[in-house]
Amino acid sequence: MSLKTENDKATKIVVDKKQLTRLSVFVPAFLVVGGGAILGIVNNQLLTDISMNGFVGSLRGLGWLYQIISIVALILVAIVTFSKLGNIRLGGSEAKPKYPFSAWFAMALTGGIATGVITYGVNEPIIYFGNIYGEMENTGIEPGTSMAAIYAMGRSLYNWTFIPYAMYSLSGLVVAYMYFNRKQSLSVTGTLTPLFGEKITKGIWPGIIDTLSVLAIALGLASSLGAGLALVGSGIETFYGIKQGPIVWLVLVFVITLMFTLSALNGLDKGIRRMANINTTVFYVILVALIIIGPTLYILQTTTAGFSHWLQNFWGWGLDPGIIGGEALVMWWTLYDWAIWIAYAPLMGIFLAVISYGRTIRQFMLINWILPAVFSIVWFGVFGGTALHWQQNNTVDLVSTIKESGAVAGLWAFLANLPLGAIIIPVVMIALILSFATAADSMVRSIATLCTVNIRFDEEPAKWKMLVWAISIAIIAYVMVAFAGGEQGVDGVKYLAALGGSAVLFIFVLQVCSAIKMFFFDKIEK
Hints:
This protein is mostly helical. 75% of the residues lie in helices and 0% in strands.
């Protein structure tokens, strides 16, 4: 398969007009998403209870599977990256990449990062360090000590670097290889043909598999946007005295939705690529500023020691379903994170595949696995290291702030104590908005792609589909925040999204098995 030439543009226009909607995916996914929003309005507590009980039950019953498949994914991407398989070019030996490395990395990084690293770069290490929710009780480490700081950093790096990005990159590689090299459809179902043959692409299975993938990402985006609204709103209230409420949230959701909708509607080149470049530039500026302002030597030492502590405990942390470290640490942090990452992985994989045409597998893994993991190491090292240093030196009591005001409250207290806080605080708020927008535009495009029959990788899905999903996600997020108690109001959708990750877990396991079969047992398509 090759990229279109100028002579193909007329043909592309005709095909675009004849795009057919996959009703077996679009309709059930839309109905479930809409139903969740309605239930959230009518009885948010019921939605929260149903989704949380299902989610908690799935983690307690399947925690062992989450841990095993995460380690298998990590080992598998390492083998594929550093073996001769890494030389395979996606699209064939003559395929030429469309995007330069910098733009490609910007889209890959911001497409999947959302608001997580900003929200938890400060909060997660401090929560571990202070044993705020009982995370350290089974570790044998005394909270508030130097060893607790090293443990906190190591555990944060474990949750946010090489293992989760292995999940994204593995799904993306399977989609890309099956589509570009083995000529399957651009879908989640197409990645499973090495295991089940063409019969998996017929009957009810494509609708079920792809619908589950759409639901997981749509609900995940809604909960992420809802949490982002509450977080930015609290920052505006804290620093600018504008009390957050329905009006503030409405303005924020309008601005954010307008940004990611216009970006998605303008396509990969004119919209998503530009937004990603702006977002990564803001990230780099923030990191450089914090490295200069922060305790640089402490950051370097704690990050290095934390990474060492993770490697020392690689198998213990990696295969613990919660009975060693305890539920407070393993289930509510690591396994919860794995559920969210896996929920995003199949649809994220489609986006990563689309922008990777013409690259080798090794290049694919460098951009989608290694460099994003390194970015997270630097981010958590800088933000988390500075926060831990301040906590230990009584510069600011972030532990008390989080205990009094909630799990994400430490971020604003941290920023308020920066020497250039008046400048950095609005920049971080902009970064939060941009981070969600750049993740949402890529995922809205992927959702619309999956809801379209036989769409090509270089073809934009119908704008009305992207618009419908963008507005639906925005409405759910706003309703849950405005009508169900602010940040707590997103819990129902958050747990529902995580529960969707439990359903997608089995799809991801099959994708991992499919990758093993296609790369180690089937004939390699170069």
